[in-house]
From TrEMBL:
Cofactor: heme b; Ca(2+)
Annotated organism of origin: Lotus japonicus (Lotus corniculatus var. japonicus)
PANTHER family assigned: PEROXIDASE, PTHR31517
Protein name as it appears in the record: peroxidase
Enzyme Commission numbers on file: 1.11.1.7
Site (Transition state stabilizer): R80
Length: 227
């Protein structure tokens, strides 16, 4: 699951290098992120909100505690939300946009949930530090907190992502997000830059969360056989 996080960040920003073991993957991921200690436009930084929203992490953690206590399945939803946001046009919160043709209209986003919780956290942050924090910089830390809350490591993630100014089409989501029927060779090529071990381990994210029968029934039974 931790590896997933890495992949996410990978797909959203820069590349990552190696590891298979979960924690190593995450660590690699983090190391692959641009380390900038000054705040420059279009660059991520570990102290991006040091002056503009110093309590960002505390606010997010406080808000999430309430969400997690009310809904123990929420961490899985947040982790997948990050993957699906970052995989399509980068980590730009475009998955929060709604229109008849936006990426949420793609069948690949079936089962995506908890978007409203991101909006709620955004509202709280607008009171704390108006106009400072992008929704993209909420989705990623929320996934990070979801990983640690469910027993994973505490990951340091640089911030400074910008929200999208365009609405990606559902066609882009169709092209970039894998279907549940994806064959092994295709999902290995999907995670470019990762080894086979990393590609497989990242799917360990699915030890967390829920799925619908219709997405796996085709792998369980031969549709031509009826008993
Ligand atoms: C080949 C790549 C992948 C495929 C084909 C895939 C497919 C799926 C499918 C079909 C579901 C169930 C949706 C439902 O029935 O409601 C699901 C759920 C989930 N996926 Fe993936 N996924 C992939 C990669 C990833 C990655 C890289 C991550 C995280 C980094 C991830 C995290 C999750 C999580 C946490 C859930 C549970 C969501 C929930 O409980 O709401 N997946 N995925």
């Amino acid at each position: 699951m931790l590896q997933l996080l890495a992949v996410l960040i990978l797909s959203c920003r820069r590349k990552m290098e190696r590891p298979f073991p979960l924690i190593l993957l995450i660590a690699t991921l983090v190391m692959a992120m641009p380390l900038s200690f000054g705040v420059e436009e279009n660059q991520l930084s570990y102290n991006y909100y040091m002056f503009s929203c110093p309590n960002l992490e505390t606010v997010i953690q406080k808000e999430l505690l309430r969400v997690f206590l009310l809904n123990p399945t929420a961490p899985a939803a947040f982790l997948r939300l990050m993957f699906h946001d970052c995989q399509v046009q980068g980590c730009d919160a475009s998955i929060l946009l709604d229109s008849e043709t936006s990426e949420m209209a793609s069948s690949r986003n079936f089962g995506i949930r908890m978007r409203e919780a991101i909006s709620n956290i955004k509202s709280t942050l607008e009171e704390e530090c108006p106009g400072q924090v992008s929704c993209a910089d909420i989705i990623v830390p929320v996934a990070k907190e979801s990983v640690s809350y469910t027993g994973g490591p505490q990951i340091q993630i640089p911030l400074g992502r910008k929200d999208t100014k365009t609405t990606p089409s559902f066609k882009e989501a169709d092209a970039k997000l894998p279907p549940p029927s994806i064959p092994v060779d295709e999902f290995i090529s999907l995670f470019k830059g990762m080894s086979i071990e990393e590609s497989v381990s990242i799917l360990g994210a699915h030890t967390l969360g829920v799925g619908h029968c219709l997405n796996i029934v085709g792998r369980l039974y031969d549709p031509t056989q009826r008993t």
